[in-house]
Amino acid sequence: MKMVKVKGRFRGGESPRIRELAFILNRIRRSPLSIAGIIMVLFFTFIAIFAPVLAHPQPNRDPYMMPRYGFSPIPRPPGPDFLFGTTEGQYDLYYGIIWGTRTAYRIGVLVVAVSMILGIVIGSIAGYYEGVIDEVLMRITDIILAFPALILAMAFVVAFGRGLDSITFALILVWWPSYARLVRGEVLKITAEDFVEAAKAIGCSDFRIMVRHVLPNTIFPLIVMASLDIGSVVLTAAALSFLGLGAPTGYADWGQIISLSRNWITGAPGNPFAYWHTYIIPGVFLFLFVMGWNLLGDALRDVFDPMIRRR
Amino acid sequence: MISGKAIRSPANILPFFFYLSKIANPYIRVGLQGVRMVNNIKTYVARRLILLLPTVLGVTILIFAVAQLFDPVQRASLYIRDPKQLRSIDEVIEKYGLNQPIYLQYFSWFSQVLQGNLGWSQSLHMQVIDAIITRFPATLELALYAAPITIFLGIRLGKLSAVKKDTLIDHLTRAFAIVGWSLPAFWLGIVLLAFFYGGLGIFAPGRLSPWADVLITTGEFRVYTGLYTLDAILNLNGAVFLDALSHLILPVTTLTIINVALIMRIMRSSMLEQLGKTYIIAARARGLDDKKVIDKHAAKNALIPVITLSGLLTAGMLSGMVITETIFEFKGIGYFAAHAATQLDIPAVLGFALLTGIIFVIANLIVDLLYAYIDPRIRLA
Amino acid sequence: MLQPPVLAEKEQLKVQDLMVRFYTYEGIVKAVEKAKLKLRLGETLGIVGETGSGKSVTALTIMVLTPTPGKVEGGNIYFRLTSGEIVDVLKLKGVELLKIRGKEISMIFQEPNAALDPLYTVGDQIAEAILTHRLPEMLERVNQLKKKEASSLLMRLPIFKGIFEKRLLNQVVREEIVQLLRLMEIPDPERVLDSYPHELSGGMQQRIVIAIALACSPALLLADEPTTNLDVTVQAQILDLIMRLKQRFGMSIIYITHDMGVIAEICDRVAVMYAGNVVEVAPVKEIFKNPLHPYTKALLESIPKPGSAFKSIPGTVPNLVNPPSGCRFHPRCAHAMKKCSVEVPQLKEVSKEHNVACFLHGDA
């Protein structure tokens, strides 16, 4: 008898985790915006991974520094030799965009990952041990959250000096409190449940309880928050680079590239959009990157929310 | 009639109050209800104010902590009022106790802050406190226009999108929201400038056209508040009013497009949450028409979380929209914060950061008070 | 008027072949399938069933308030208005429908706290009901008051007149509400009027909900498990109140519950619902004495009695996206026959006033 693969919903039998996965995938499939988001994210991930292939780095040079082909300040429009044209100072725009994807991912993933880890640790401690520790830690998060991200990051960057590393460090310091708050909230909810009391009664160590019981329940909201945050982090980092506080001139960073276009937005006499490529192209890439991750985060949130309620 | 001596004797007072209470009783009853509400709010306000202090202190501590990342010579400029003082660094260090233990330094710095001394800014060539005071009106003007428009639009669109869920309007507004939220603020500003200013020649960057600036410097146009549109009205000068307004259009549009998304989203999800609740079914069961049910009941309940967000949004705008002001050369505190940052002008940046923190803490307080006013359940908590 | 007369002379409500379906991600939930109900004037009909039996949905649908994503897919709901006129509620639209809700048919809910808007005082919410449906009456009273009070020249000026009239209207409505609250046996009605819902106890809140429902003297009151969430002592008080109010107002009541004890106390007839179908309808005494449908029997047997062991109904409530074929109870029925999984039994009158939908009784 031929084995026919049946698509669609699974019936009983499979483990609940597979069924949940199937449910998630089904929900995502129904929403065109989510699919668009996933495609965009995959597109940028592909570019980031294959950057050295798509835009060959020059020998004996930091691959993140865009190659220069001259010193004239006037940007050249897209043409046969330069796919996207050049920026002010004759940097290869195409190269900058491609490697800029990598930069974006580097900062975004690094900041979000470290913030998340820091947030998980601090949040779990605050939520689990409660009392004075909780109060103190929450006051600290309150104070940091009292500032808009950009301004506080600016203050840190001024202290640490210009550069992408400063930005990364500053953004981590600004972003971890939101994760800490989230984890703490979840931990408080879970520790209120009886099975934690039971585990303690059996003699499970605190650490074990936290890792095996508390954390798995906080994964979903954390994932949603993380995917939504990558967009915001990259936007803020680009803003800082745009202001001149981040990547040095000539570095393959979208924000930095856009800042090179500031003098050219009025165009040339007679042709106001002569230099459109200097701001439109990098801006579109930045915009689509952020939107892709925002759509993905939204989709994940829509999927996980009713599920959490269903539980 | 009532002499000092007479009052002191309690027996004389009693009949007076007795008759007073008889007359005043009905008014007191009504008044008491109001007083009950006010009393509850009073204790609520008192409690929130008390909680305010540690947060404000915390903000100052954070700023001070960031300041410690710099060496003493750099930190010295946080305390001085005049660049000439920098020539005798040792005196400065002695005077403000920069070589003393941290906590003493903090108190010394804090007391300077309370006296209005936020240090000297090299990049701006003036005292930080003066820089803030002179630049703030520009930001205030921008926020004054941008915030209400954003909040109003956001609430309207969110309500519309929730009521007409899953229709074309819903999808369109949500798409608009996602696009707006993902747009880099600086990029949107550039594109708008390129199109309108570069392409059409209108809406130039800056706050005023050169001819209006001339009017100010010559004294023909008196600046009262620093808010140019308001001043133009006070000066009865229509031309300057229109000019200032036209310079506000692009920055306000940029801010609106980006921030509407946020408000709209929360309003939409809040409305959807309320629309599923039992009291809405109950309201419908009373025979109320859709409009009343939505506006009077669902929307009012839905607005509660939106208020927090709106408050924070306004606070964010007041603390200087660094990017928007930079792109449009709108010389408010954000513009100068960015300028100072690139010059590594520590006192200026820290001063602006401190101001921001304080603004946010106050905004939080105001939001909490608004909550108490709107939601009777909070007042008793 | 619907010709030929669809309701008998003494009938208040007739639900015929009602079908309600919910369109969800998991599939189409067939919540109510061909439900049939009849209600006489002044009668109290109880609807009994487990969660998921479709009783709440039916009640909400009688007021055309089926919650989304539900859709009424068929059937008629014939209702006799106070004026005597007969309408099909499901065919009404717009203003016609609004005139019925709150005035001819009212509803009280399971969770009184959730049924009141937390941002408005209780008095405001009762006033809403009154002002929506009884405005002309209130305005008439205002006019009476105006004639009685000597109106000075000041009061004839347009601006002051408006304010004056508004104040009088408020006063008139307040008086009416106080009367209503007294009927609900609420002490200190003036103070309660100006309270917010969260300031009142559960029992008080439920009295308010009842007050709102009865403010316009409806012909039919739908009660969706109004005492389930209350303390037992309060439960008894509210039940008593409802019965007394019924004496006074004379309305028909549909009382939804899963508590057979309540049914025994206050209902004249009972309808048993299972998985969206009405499976048995009979007068109260009859149902307890002679339950015919296996589900009804099982329900009665599962009421815990001191001294005997717990008896529960084997199996679980069916998934309504893919309900069992034929009679929906057949997988759990001890007397299931082959026919039960193939054909759907219809409600048939087996003895006087006693209808069952089961192949064990009467041919289907």
Describe the structure.
The complex is a heterotrimer of chains A (311), B (381) and C (364). Chain A contains 11 helices and no strands. Chain A is mainly α and 311 residues long. In chain A, helix 2 packs across helix 11, helix 4 (93-129) runs antiparallel to helix 5 and helix 4 packs parallel to helix 7. Chain B is an all-alpha fold and 381 residues long. Chain B has 17 helices and 2 strands. Chain B has helices at residues 4-8, 10-67, 72-76, 89-96, 102-114, 128-163, 168-182, 185-200, 210-218, 228-234, 238-275, 278-285, 290-318, 322-327, 333-342, 346-374, 376-380, and strands at 120-121, 126-127. Chain C has helices spanning 55-62, 94-100, 122-133, 135-148, 153-156, 158-183, 189-193, 202-214, 232-249, 260-266, 284-289, 294-301; strands spanning 11-24, 27-40, 44-48, 70-80, 86-88, 105-108, 220-224, 252-257, 269-274, 277-283, 348-351, 354-356. Chain C is α/β, with parallel strands linked by helices. The chains are: A mainly alpha (311), B mainly alpha (381), C alpha/beta (364). Chains in contact: A-B, B-C. At the A-B interface, helix 5, helix 6, helix 9 and helix 11 of A face helix 2, helix 7, helix 8, helix 14 and helix 15 of B.
Q: Could you state the order of secondary-structure elements of chain C as H and E? A: EEEHEEHEHHHHHHEHEHEEHHEE
- Total helical elements of chain B: 17
Share of helix among residues of chain C?
25-40%
| Side-by-side strand order of the widest sheet of chain C | 6-7-8-3-9-10-12-11
Class computed from helices, strands and strand pairing of chain C:
alpha/beta
Uncertain segments of chain B are 1-17, 24-35
Q: For the CA atoms, what is the radius of gyration of chain B?
A: 27 Å
Mean pLDDT of chain B: 79
Q: Can you tell me the residue ranges of chain C where pLDDT is under 50 for at least 5 consecutive residues? A: none
Largest sheet geometry of chain C? 8 strands, mixed
Number of helices of chain C: 12
The amount of beta strand of chain B, in percent, is under 5%
Order of helices and strands of chain B: HHHHHEEHHHHHHHHHHHH
